[in-house]
Amino acid sequence: MPITRTRSYHHGDLRAELLQRAEATLRESGVDGLSLRQLARDVGVSHAAPTRHFKDKQALLDALAVSGFEQLGAALEKTAACDGVGGRIREMAQTYLRFATENSALLELMFARRHSPAAAEAVTEAVDRAFAAPVALIADAQARGEVIAGEPRRIALSAVAVLQGLATFIGSGVIDADTAHELLDETTGYMLDGLRPRR
Question: What's the rounded mean pLDDT across residues 176-183?
């Protein structure tokens, strides 16, 4: 009779597998539903195996936040191919809102939870990479005279803050999801009006 036991050795990319499963658990059960021991059971490794990659739950949460910013940055980067500053900003806004509404628990973790000092540098670098595309968009548009003068990063983060607020309103039910895209179009229009150079 064969003996079934938890594997103590994992030949694949265990860290990536743990993060993927943790993100799914976060979506299903929130932060309180996450534990290293349960993750180990879910992916079929010994209960000690996850601690080789994450020393505790906080380290796991920090890694999830970094992963979230990397995913967001990759999504925003894909909008760079759109034509014109207006088209690119609208596409970027839609991409951000889609990511925010489809990953609300992850987004809350990325922005609302406190990260450990040990992860501060990694989180900061991930944030910078995530918003590199909006910053580059603003800088390019400024060079063509399509956007007001100013520090590109500050302008880009101001626009992202508006989108983050809109996403928070949708996630909390203040704004009905059915009218979200209509409101996004209006918000983007106001944003573009504000970014145009003054004559």
Answer: 83
What residues make up the domain containing 94?
A: 58-195
Q: What is the pLDDT of residues 183-194, one digit of tens each?
A: 899 999 998 899
Whether 142 and 48 map to the same domain: the answer is no
Q: How many domains does the chain have?
A: 2
- Whether residues 70 and 143 share a domain: the answer is yes
Residues belonging to the chain = 199
Domain match, 130 and 189 both: yes
**What pTM was estimated for this model as a whole?**
0.85
Return the exposure string of 102-126: e unless at least 16 CB atoms fall within 10 Å of the residue's CB, then b: ebbbbbbbbeeeebeeebeeebeeb
Dig out the tokens for 61 from the structure: 């949460």
